[in-house]
Known about the structure:
Arc Repressor Mutant, subunit A, 2 domains, four-stranded mixed sheet
Amino acid sequence: MLTVAAEWVAAERDRRYRRRPDLRLKTIEDAERFIDDVGFAFLWPIKGIEAPSLFEAVAGRTRKVPKAHDDPDLSKSWHWKDQSLGGTRWYYARLLRRRATLIAPRLQATFYALTHNFGDLYDYLEQVQDGVITHEARLIYEALLEHGPLNTVELRRRVSMTSSESKSRFERGLVALQVDMKVLPVGVARAGAWDYSFVYDIPMRHYPDLPEQARAIGTRQAWQTLVGQYVSNTIAVATKQIGQLFHVFEPTRRELTAALDSLVDSGEIVPAQIEGGGEVWVSARALEGR
């Protein structure tokens, strides 16, 4: 079996994630090209999850997210995210690992194909009948369905969850809807204690072609595309790490195995071993430049 050095993997990841001063993102156009290149990334790095992040690409290095709001790398990342909400640069919502995720337009339909949506605003009623959508999530979705875009403060009022006791239930419902790509932030309003609040809406109102595009993508194809992109991004990754990243979509071992086998057959990935470590899948494209 092929063996790769951990130092090579780390250096390739830094290049791929733009974690080098000479590759750091300087403009929002740079950020758009970066997200298109990696396909999907987190807004902030997540401990224990191997993936690119917009923040580290802006910083041009590996670093923890600072607490100071006036930090230039943090401010730039935050501003670019707000500036692009509901737009065409990328799809933004709390999705992978239930964290802030940016998805390139070319992969939005692929993610959507793994959700419970079928392309109708009232699909959620089937989930209600099956008991797989929470009461809070249903109330939030129906409020947006009836009233259109609402900021967080107004949304909580509409669903009668304004008390501090109901805050966690409201947030869980809101995140669950984002994970299933039923709701996403589309803007910012001057509301709430910090005079800052997301405005939420239903994705189909902003990306009307998304359901039709997703219908042409089968589950098997979706997994092959996303797993292939993830291996390309990380350079080398274990099967367990793949499952951890995509856990909100509940991939079965059979689905991941089928995707990996197809990627091996197509020559996109290669089974290998990290020196002194375990077995991984390595990007064939990265190996070409070794």
